[in-house]
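Entry, Tuesday afternoon. Goal for today is a structural model of the target with flavin-adenine dinucleotide bound, before we commit to ordering more compound. Inputs were pasted exactly as handed over by J.K., no edits. I checked the ligand SMILES twice against the vendor sheet because last time a stereocentre got dropped in transcription.
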Amino acid sequence: MATFVIIGAGLAGAKAAETLRGEGFDGDIVLLGTEPERPYERPPLSKGVLLGKAERESAFVHPAGWYAENRVDFRPGVTVTAIDPAGHAVTADGGAVAYDKLLLATGAAPRRLDLPGADLDGVHYLRTMQESERLRAAFATGARVVIIGAGWIGLETAAAARLADCPVTVVEPEPGALHRTLGPELGAVFGDLHRSHGVEFRFGETVTSLYVPPQAPPRPGEPVAPKIAGVVTSSGDQVRGEVIVVGIGVIPNDALAQAAGLEVSNGVVTDAALRTSDPDIFAAGDVASSFNPLLGHRVRVDHWSNALNGGVAAAKAMLGQDVSYDRVPYFFSDQYDLGMECCGLPSPGAYDQVVYRGDVRAREFIAFWLSGGRLVAGMNVNVWDVAGDIQALIRSGRELNPARLANPGIPLTDV
Ligand SMILES: Cc1cc2nc3c(=O)[nH]c(=O)nc-3n(C[C@H](O)[C@H](O)[C@H](O)COP(=O)(O)OP(=O)(O)OC[C@H]3O[C@@H](n4cnc5c(N)ncnc54)[C@H](O)[C@@H]3O)c2cc1C
């Protein structure tokens, strides 16, 4: 009987296991994960769980008994340290595991702050359930919060901190919020949203050091416990804060693949079937840099829907089905009373025009990013049930009339 091994018990790994069984695979499935938890979804960690509005239980992908019931040999707390593609085996904490087919679903890890003091207690990252719970407890003290990075993690965390009544300053080297993700136009919408909730921004500044005030000498026998008290930025200013949140991007967990001789380039390189440079090894989710036939190039998408759908697609490909993973990248976010979905990749340089439909000031609109008249990306803000239509317009590759796109009287399907 065949054994399929999945490294990484996140959303992509869990969905792959579910799909293998759902598609009738009767062999052994071994799911190996570093974390002590069973697979969970991460979006609630910067939203409901961080706000204290959602139970941790609600984040899990499957009920606790699901793995045993479906004969998935799930091993939490197990880290894979090496892959031997020639020998078809992986080395894990608990010993070697042989595989017929292997899926890499190892995700990504937060980029670390490389400054003295970055390992002190008050410095937080947000990737795991425990980190979210720690941060929620820190916010509950009403501490001043400094957030490094005005990306998605930084801004969602800023919203949660403000809703907990903590004073918040965000330090960001780019000229605006979400600048490299959305460009200046939509970045400004998010910047204004946060300002209206009392967030202070320091754009165009980097954090040059962490501020740890000198301490009185400890009494004999007492441990030295330096405390973080803020950051110093490139402007020379000191920004006070007892809680520092670092949200400066993620790095794909591709070192295992690289050490095994697989092709790696900002993630594990795969074809459109999510197959790596080894025919028996596949990759999905945040760690995969996959050829997307729709976009015509490789892309690494570190968003929820890519983990969900990529895990399903990789499992089907492992079963020998014909897979062409060509989804339009999709992302969602919730901040205060703003909910949005974004389809496509609207980074600066990818578009030459932004068209709006609806009321931008009331934050109830759709933004369309166009390049040469063709739709590159679309974001619906507090407007719902249009993501499918936006994706269809992106897929069509047709030249669109901006005036019709902006006209709320014309259904998107007729644009
Ligand atoms: C706080 C937060 C909020 C987010 N919010 C949103 C959102 O609102 N919308 C959205 O679209 N996306 C969001 N995302 C992104 C989304 O959660 C990720 O894209 C998704 O979690 C990726 O899933 P994955 O399974 O590929 O990887 P992961 O979730 O990172 O899971 C990979 C797992 O593999 C394990 N692992 C790594 N190496 C090994 C090894 N050698 N051996 C064993 N196990 C290993 C890791 O410990 C981890 O548990 C958010 C992410 C975070 C952190």
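The CA atoms of residues 249 and 296 lie 25 Å apart.
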